[in-house]
Amino acid sequence: MKSQDIVILLKLASLELGEPERGVHSGLDAHHDDPFSARGLGASLGISKTEVNASINRSVSSGLAIKDRNSGRPKPNRRNLYNFIVHGLKFVFPAMPGAMTRGVPTAFAAAPLKGLLVSAGEYIYVWPFANGKVKGQSLDPLFKSVPEATQKDARLYEYLALVDAIRIGNQREAGLAVERMSERLLKK
Prior knowledge:
This protein has helices at residues 3-16, 38-45, 49-62, 78-87, 89-92, 146-150, 154-168, 171-185; strands at residues 65-67, 74-76, 97-105, 125-128, 134-139. The chain is α+β, with helices and mostly antiparallel strands. The strands form two sheets. Strands 3, 4 and 5 form a three-stranded mixed β-sheet that branches. The protein has a two-stranded antiparallel sheet with strand order 1-2. Strand 1 and strand 2 (74-76) form a beta hairpin. It is globular, with a radius of gyration of 16 Å. The two termini are 25 Å apart. Mean pLDDT is 86; it is low at 20-31.
């Protein structure tokens, strides 16, 4: 399992719920590819289609994804993915805060949790991003292209911010993030 596997699975979960919520540009070229294809996923996430294929194969083998019988499209096994994110992700891909930088707000500073928790510190967590407008303590995303990919898909941004809150939060903070993740990921 690689960290980008989670990013790809969450993108698939976002696609299942419809078009990206923010903007109409999905990262695909003018001759729209199927957004569920390796090429479509790769274009929207900034991951090579070879790595997308390998990731989907790993996810199917581990039970975190399944292939749809009718269309052959990969889709996340939402229950298994949720359980892995809640119970295992922070141990497999721990979050390590870094230096102060500009970037995209994540964890408790992002939309799903912003304003719900009173922070003990004055700094927020951000994914380092050259075009970021917010200064905070850096937190490496699950994959290097996450800050850019989330600019195109608000739902994916929420999922990944909640994942970071689960990875870095204490029991109370992570518990709130788990509730929000359940509402979003298991509602289908």
